[in-house]
Fold this protein.
Amino acid sequence: MQVLELSWLGWIAASIIVCWALPGRWRPWGIAAFALAFLAVEDPPSAAILSVMAAITWWSGARGGGQRPGIAAVVVLLLGALAAFKVAMAGGGFALPLGMSYYTFRCVHYALERFKKSLPPHTASEFVAYLFFLPTIVAGPIHRFPEFHRDLKRTRLGGDLVSEGLERVLYGYAKILVVSGWLIQEQLQPWIAGLEPAHAWLSTYLYMLSAGYMGYLTFAGYSDIAIGASRLTGFRVIENFNNPFASRNIVEFWRRWHISLTSWVRDYLYATVFSLTRKPYLAALSAMLVIGLWHEVTARYVIWGLAHGLAVAGCQWYQRRRAGGTAPSSRPRAMLGAFAGWFVTFHFVMLSCVFVMHDFDRAMDIYRTLLTGRP
Amino acid sequence: MTAEAVSGAVALLEAMARTDPKRVFIQGEDDRLTYGEAVERVARLAGLFKRLRLAPGARVVLATRDDLALATTFLALLRTGLTAVVLNPESRATELATLVDAADPGALIMDRRLVERMLPEQIKDLPVVALDDTDAKVFRKLVDSEAVPPPPASVNPDATAYILFTSGTTSRPKGVEISQRALFAQMATFVRQYRFDARTRLMNLLPLHHTDGLTQGVVVAACAGATLLRPMRIRVYQVGEIVDACHELRATHLIAVPSLLALMMSLGERYHDALRTDWFRFVISTAAYLDPGLWQRFEETYGTQVVNVYGLTETVCETTYCGPDEATRRVGTIGKPVDAEVRVVDEAGQRLPAGSEGELVVRGAHVMKGYFRAPEETAQVLRDGWFHTGDLATEDADGFFRIVGRKKDVIITGGINVYPEDVNAVLRTVPGIVDAATIGLPDERWGEVVVSGLAVRAGAQPTEQDIAAHFLRHASPEKLPREFYFFEDLPRGPAGKVVKAELARLITDRRATAHHETHSGGVRERVLQVAAQAFKCRVDEISEQSTARTVDGWTSLAHVEFLMTLEQEFGFTMQPEDILRIDSIGDALQLLARQAGLSAGDAT
């Protein structure tokens, strides 16, 4: 991943210095120029594709603004391009353009909000700076235009900003390199593997947890680096994780995990499906399916998405049913209920991770061992 | 360095002409006006007035949503010695007819939609200049076609500069007549006390038909050679944008009513550094009582000083100032008088010793000439050179004044004065309503809220929607009561007069048992309750600005429940597009306002 390479750090450092050195009106262009230059050097086709998508998105707002068929066509075009690349990638034909998953969703967000006339007045340079923003271009988060625009207008360089930014970047690298890479992968997992064959169930169970945590820490680390680098450039982008493994139900989990993606899906997909069908469970199922496909257009992510969709719909059904009921009569009972909720949620998430983090046969082996205790 | 005081209208225009013509005088929503343009248009407008044969002393009714047109025309009227009668551009037909009739003007300059609300017999043979508030070019073209006559060499300082009506919907309106001398005396005080100069960038979004927007905005900015910032209209759900605009447009001062400060306190942490800049100097809180708790919290949160000022339309604008200098500053008070004498007196008009409660009276060059064509009302408040404010106050040993109550019958809600009798007069015309009594009840955010008790004819069942719709046909939205309470008869004393204290008690009881009837104004509270229930949080934890990103319990399901409960509660079905547009509680309020056929500002 580029974020871990020294060259990326060099790009980021140079971009931060130049951005602050430029006069206010040139800053947006400076931000965009650095990101575009980075893409052009690292992956020229990505730079070209993303530039075309930016042009289409801007054009849709400038020319098609207010026209429903026009905006629908642009959204279909943008999402269709992403889907096409994902399908091709799944077939081994193409590599996905760098950052396209995040970038496309930012374009759709911008196009729809502009259609809704909810964006603040802004210039083309500000729009381009939003889309071509180096700290978030590779690994998200899917930040939103109004917040970005607001920071572009008002952030000033100061000691707080620098210390906050550096701190987050360091946290990010520590999560990825120290905790996930060294501690879990190099120290813990060999020790877990050593428990086999005498303790096959325990070894598999601990391996499942360690792999889940590694995935979380790595992704959260990327987000920390993006958030920290954004801060150093003067922007406060959306937090992507909020202690997701402490969730007591699956709905709560999805409010704490990859927040920028789930909030995008809630605002633009869940709400759309619900508004058209008035069926909240169908909306939940569709939303989770799309989250699955956003990761990868493969059967395993379809199944993973549907499983989470059913779990979210079930949880919502239970919550609605319980809404008129009474609260637990005693504190121990309430604590027990909370623990049970956490236990089920945590294990559901971990078990579902197994399915998408390994190939099908390996995943089945893990499930079998966990069910039977046999290696 | 503070700008030099200008002595009158002639000196004002001369000073404006000396200012850099490219400097922005007013930054509006979509347009801006430079000093050069303003001076030229003022000169050309004199040509229009001449063509309309308006002689000095004639009154011109001015009512438009176009801030730049209003500001330019107002200054032109000042310069030519004519009297501006500035009316609410949201006035309904009944109000408009009453106020135009009372003003007895020589010409009408108003938005076309207002002209269309008037009957031909109300306009008679008055010259009418119709503006288009949606197209600023109409005004510009109109002005640019005028010849520039030589301006009058001088303007009588005792001429009436403007009249602002403080009450009057269907009954006797009360117009405050302010002389040029009083206006410019007040401007000199403002410029000196606030230390305004050409670098001042004054954010003042208050309406221009109120003195706080007009004199403490347009006129003072012109007097100081400053820039007035009016980039948007005040909307409750756009408070964050107002704060951002202060930062983006490098405002040096923000003039606000306490309700706006309370709303700013509901904004998230991200906004709290907006005024902590090298250029921002202080906030001026005007038009209503500023709660000391809010005052201190605001100063701590936003890291800036709040200058609390006190005054009335009858004293141009302000009389006492609590800050910005330390000598006049004591939190919880209205500070000390500047360029004015202020006393606390008893019923006989005798000055009371420190600590005693009595009526606040004011004397100074900035006091009004009187109420327009209302000698009796004028005599009641202007006695022996002292203006009796109707506010109850105390003065402490150090000379700081504190407002403790009110003698007069007025409700101050969000900085707007609402006279109960104006509201009652309209409510009594609603079919099925026998009598109405309106009171103000304390409210954390708005200072007071307007609520009305209605005596309903037996068998009649007027709905709140019907009443609100009827009301808005005859009176401006700012007067619309937030809540209605229905009674067989209103509580009355032996002489048959409504006992307001008893009415307030009955209404408070009904509110407490939550069986009250509400309509559009109460919509906010109901929506917040629905939201709090859906999102499993307390009502005081959410506001118009709340979104899924700021409220923990705002899950997708909770969002759906919120919308579905709103549909049930308000009896309508949302269209798919409506559902997609609701991202915040403010969006929901806007939608409901549209449903009720009101503007968003009305409902919020």
Chain B has 21 helices and 26 strands. The interface with chain A takes residues 241, 244, 247-248, 270, 274, 548-549, 552, 555-557, 559-561, 574-581, 583 of chain B (CB under 8 Å).
